[in-house]
Amino acid sequence: MQNGPAVRRRKLGAELRMLRTGAGLTSGEAARLVGWHQSKVSRIETGASGVKPADLGLLLDAYQVRDTHLRELLLMLAGSEDAGGRHGWWHAYRGVLPPTYRDFISLESQASAMRTLETTVVPGLLQTPEYARAVTRAAVKDLDEDRLDTLVEVRLARQDVLRSDPPLVLSAVLDEAVLRREVGGPKVMARQLERLMEAARLPQVRLQVLPFAAGAHVGLTGPFVIFSFPSTSDLDVVVLDQLTSSLYLERKEDLMAYSEAFHTLQFHALSPEESLDYIAGIGDGA
User: Fold this and answer.
1) Full-model pTM
2) Are 111 and 226 within one domain?
3) Are residues 143 and 206 in the same domain?
4) Are 196 and 157 within one domain?
5) Is pLDDT larger for residue 156 or for residue 230?
6) In 3D, which of 71, 68, 70, 45 has the Cα closest to residue 57?
């Protein structure tokens, strides 16, 4: 288990190593092409040190990487910037957001798909402003109104990934407790349930409810997120959210275990169509 930045460096380094070998270059030859010492290339490839976006561009040129989307993805991993050198929108909030949250947002913004199990609250990408405010107030101690407003603003800005082109493909399994827990009061919860039904009808969203009747399940150990990226599965990562930090799992064994767990949860959950009816029933007081 690693923190976000360490995972990003390791994944970026592994991808660069594959690109270099694919170009038929040794680390020494690559270093000479860009005017560096061989040790710098080695440190980057092992994840021991990061690489500035400008330096990464030199390496990608040396390896003759023409795939624009892959270049943008690797540049994001290198420094949370796009190919034009522009920081992601969340950098405007760097004085408010902890590094682990910024790193999560940057991964979310570049992922092509996201699978998530939620056992306590509605996924952030599907929260209403009122629900987000109530959750944030409860989760973060001693918040003044200005900082609360900012954190809610960030939560809502994250939801743009569902409207981007192409949009993030979201698959979510929600434990019934998420729907039954009254966050923010009856009116806030009623609107939140309506929002879930609206989202469930989007082609890029697959929403399933895991009812109490399903009994014990593999997700009882806690919520998790699996990010998948275009062009290469080697960048996929599992995120476990903790009270004060996030843990990132990158080993193939971990990815396989969590992918299988999510598939099992989907199998035992209600179908998307049944889930819509189930949410509607809860909203009607069933």
Assistant:
1) 0.81
2) yes
3) yes
4) yes
5) 156
6) 71
